[in-house]
């Protein structure tokens, strides 16, 4: 049983000032640095990296929300993996549905995953269906997203990737509902099967898979307990340190109870 969890905040286009960014980051850091079983990553807008770099630590890690495929040259508006690394960034979200909605396809996601891994960043690869159809075409979408994103990676690189299952229909404040842990569980099993078919069952077991989509302090733990995931990608609730901290603490406490159980056996 795994008892090391990964919880990633995705701040998106928020907050609006450096002062607020520092305040939220500090509020999360106060709790995250005390945790033994949970690693916290905060994916922030690029403009805050310089200030937040001074606050980041091993237990409160800096991430970004996207990177460019190229690493230098005439590419107006882009920011490269090597540039963000200089600010202590270790994780980057790749293939988020909000970026895919602006035109990013599976091939570009694959290229970004390769760029991230080559430059020593951990890509948090978002996959997930727009909607659930009754004929089950959504399974094909998820399979294609996973195969295209990681199928060409050397096996060793699997230690350096994270997959986030983010059903698009469950993302955002206006989403009708989050996925249920049961819905999450079957997709996570499926993702691991796809990885197992490309690489091996052990690789499939070891890759960290997260759930993202309207996670709250109330329902987050259910995705670890019954949804088969190793943590969460949290959007709007990660801008509220009290809420996000509750998610962190609940997960830490759960990990501790699991450890005790394991020792007793
Ligand atoms: C996200 O967009 O990655 C996400 C999980 O957002 P939210 O928690 O707001 O649904």
Protein model, in words:
This protein is α/β, with parallel strands linked by helices. The protein has a single domain (5-264), classed as Aldolase class I (TIM Barrel, Alpha-Beta Barrel), CATH 3.20.20. It has 10 helices and 8 strands. It has helices at residues 18-32, 49-52, 81-85, 97-100, 106-118, 137-150, 181-198, 201-206, 220-225, 241-264; strands at residues 5-10, 38-44, 60-64, 91-94, 122-127, 162-165, 208-212, 231-234. The chain has an 8-stranded parallel β-barrel with strand order 1-2-3-4-5-6-7-8, surrounded by 5 helices. Strand 5, helix 6 (137-150) and strand 6 form a beta-alpha-beta unit. Helix 5 (106-118) runs parallel beside helix 6. The longest helix has 24 residues, at 241-264. It is globular. The two termini are 13 Å apart. The mean pLDDT is 96. Phosphoenolpyruvate (PEP) binds at residues 10, 166, 171-172, 212-215, 233-236.
Give the helix/strand layout.
Layout: E1 5-10, H1 18-32, E2 38-44, H2 49-52, E3 60-64, H3 81-85, E4 91-94, H4 97-100, H5 106-118, E5 122-127, H6 137-150, E6 162-165, H7 181-198, H8 201-206, E7 208-212, H9 220-225, E8 231-234, H10 241-264
Parallel strand pairs: 1-2, 1-8, 2-3, 3-4, 4-5, 5-6, 6-7, 7-8
Helix pairs in contact: 1-10, 5-6, 6-7
Bound molecules: phosphoenolpyruvate.
Distance between the termini: 13 Å
- CATH class value: Alpha Beta
List cofactors, ions and other ligands. Answer: phosphoenolpyruvate
Q: What is the name of the CATH superfamily?
A: Aldolase class I
Structural class: alpha/beta
- Arithmetic mean of pLDDT: 96
* Rg, alpha carbons: 17 Å
Q: Total domains, how many? A: 1
Strand content: 15-25%
What letter string, H or E per element, gives the SSE order?
A: EHEHEHEHHEHEHHEHEH
Shape: globular
Here the CATH topology equals TIM Barrel
Instruction: Specify the CATH architecture.
Output: Alpha-Beta Barrel
- The stretches of 5 or more residues where confidence is low (pLDDT under 50) are none
Strand order of the largest sheet: 1-2-3-4-5-6-7-8
User: Total number of helical segments?
Assistant: 10
Biggest sheet descriptor: 8 strands, parallel, barrel
Number of E strands: 8
Q: Give the helix proportion (percent range).
A: 40-55%
């Amino acid at each position: 049983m795994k008892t090391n969890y990964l919880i990633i905040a995705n701040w998106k286009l928020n907050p609006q000032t450096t002062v607020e960014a520092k305040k939220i980051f500090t509020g999360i850091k106060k709790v995250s640095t005390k945790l033994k079983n949970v690693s916290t990553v905060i994916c922030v807008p690029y403009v805050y990296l310089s200030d937040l770099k001074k606050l980041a630590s091993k237990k409160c890690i800096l991430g970004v929300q996207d990177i460019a495929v190229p690493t230098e040259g005439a590419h107006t508006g882009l920011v490269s993996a090597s540039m963000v690394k200089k600010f202590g960034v270790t994780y980057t979200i790749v293939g988020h549905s909000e970026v895919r909605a602006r035109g990013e396809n599976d091939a570009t996601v694959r290229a970004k995953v390769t760029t991230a891994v080559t430059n020593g960043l951990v890509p948090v690869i978002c996959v997930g269906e727009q909607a659930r159809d009754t004929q089950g075409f959504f399974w094909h979408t998820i399979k294609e997203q996973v195969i295209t994103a990681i199928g060409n990676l050397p096996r060793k690189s699997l230690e350096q990737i994270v997959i986030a299952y983010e059903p698009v229909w469950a993302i955002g404040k206006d989403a009708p509902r989050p996925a249920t842990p049961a819905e999450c569980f079957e997709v996570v099993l499926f993702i691991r099967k796809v990885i197992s078919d490309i690489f091996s069952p052990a690789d499939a077991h070891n890759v960290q898979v997260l759930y993202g989509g309207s996670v709250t302090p109330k329902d987050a733990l259910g995705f670890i307990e019954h949804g088969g995931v190793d943590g969460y990608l949290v959007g709007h609730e990660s801008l509220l340190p009290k809420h996000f901290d509750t998610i962190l603490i609940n997960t830490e406490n759960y990990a501790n109870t699991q450890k005790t159980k394991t020792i007793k056996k």
